Amino acid sequence: VEARLGKRPRTEVRIFPDRRWRYDLVLDLPIGVIVEVDGSRHASIVRNRKDAEKRNAAIAAGYRCLTYQASSVLTKSRLPKIVDQISRVVCGIGSVPEFSCIMRGD
C-alpha cells in the first residue's frame, strides 16, 4: 500500500482509548481509511458480531473501512486488486496538499 499510495499506513492502531480494539491498518487522511484483515479466527458468530461492532464504531467516527480475508491478502494474484481498491477509496476522499491521488506508475 505504501509503495502505491506514497503514504505509510499505521498498524495495530487504537482509535478509541476506552476500547481494547486495534485496527490492522489506518491511513491518516482528512477522512481516515481503515483496512482490516480477518483470518480464520474471525469466522465464529460471536467474533463476527464483535468485528461488526468495531467496524461500525469506526464508520460512525468518520472512517471508511475495508475488510479482507487474510487468504486473499496473501494471494499474489489478488493483492494488486486489493491495493487498487484501497487506492480508489483513498482517492475518492479527495486530494489534500500533502497527499496526491495521482498513483505512481500512472
Number of strands: 4
Helix content: 25-40%
| Rg result | 14 Å
**Contiguous runs where pLDDT drops below 50 for at least 5 residues:** 94-106
How would you sum up the global shape?
A: globular
| Distance from first to last alpha carbon | 15 Å
Strand content: 15-25%
What characterizes the major β-sheet?
4 strands, mixed
Structural class, please? Answer: alpha+beta
So how many helices? 4
Q: How would you sum up this structure, described in words?
A:
This protein is an alpha+beta fold and 106 residues long. It has helices at 2-5, 45-60, 70-73, 79-93, and strands at 10-13, 23-27, 33-38, 64-69. The protein has a four-stranded mixed beta sheet with strand order 1-2-3-4, with helices on both faces. Residues 94-106 have low confidence and may be disordered.
Summarize the structure.
This protein has 4 helices and 4 strands. The protein has 106 residues and is of the alpha+beta class.
Map the helices and strands.
Blueprint: H1 2-5, E1 10-13, E2 23-27, E3 33-38, H2 45-60, E4 64-69, H3 70-73, H4 79-93
Parallel strand pairs: 3-4
Antiparallel strand pairs: 1-2, 2-3
List keywords for this structure.
single chain, 106 residues, alpha+beta, 4-stranded mixed beta sheet, 4 helices, 4 strands, 37% helix, globular
